[in-house]
Amino acid sequence: MTRRFLLAFLALVALALPAAAETQYVQDTNDGYLNLRRGPGTQYGIVMRLTAGTEVQGLAGNRAWRQVALPDGTVGWVHGGYIDLNYFPTRRYDFTVRRTNDGYLNLRRGPNTSFGIIRRLHAGQMLFWDGGRSGDWAQLRLPDGTTGWASLKYLMAVN
């Protein structure tokens, strides 16, 4: 009898423990981005927009809404239908963002660090080359149409 209770207790404890975080990737969307939200639903505010290929760590949630963490530590919720264990591109991209020490790459208004930051890009994000180049900097376009400049040393060609 005691053994049954012990086994039942251990089973309940195992179910209560959080699952280990797993690396997942944002998939292509019709509008070019996936909203990272403050909570599990469209009624929650948008923290930022994630583009295809962005690497996230799945933390919690269900199939509909998943809590995720970005490499820089930003945590939020995304619709579970737009992330997967593998990235399956439906568009032809030119570059992907490499991992960086601080977890993000700045997309800037011009080709050096003196220009303002437009957006932070995360490892795995997919980008189009807009044709501009200045030294070690490339002019890029995100799937949502946002354009800016980033250092080539943090980018990897994919085509």
TrEMBL record:
Signal is among the record's keywords: yes
Extent of the signal sequence: 1-21
Name the record gives this protein: Uncharacterized conserved protein YgiM, contains N-terminal SH3 domain, DUF1202 family
UniProt keyword Cell membrane, yes or no: no
Keywords from the named record: Signal
Domain SH3b per the UniProt entry, residue ranges: 21-87, 95-159
SMART domains: SH3b
Top-level division of the source organism's lineage: Bacteria
Transmembrane parts of this sequence: none
Organism of origin: Vannielia litorea
Pfam families in the cross-refs: SH3_3
InterPro entries reported for this sequence: Cell_Wall_Dynamics_Protein (IPR052354), SH3-like_bac-type (IPR003646)
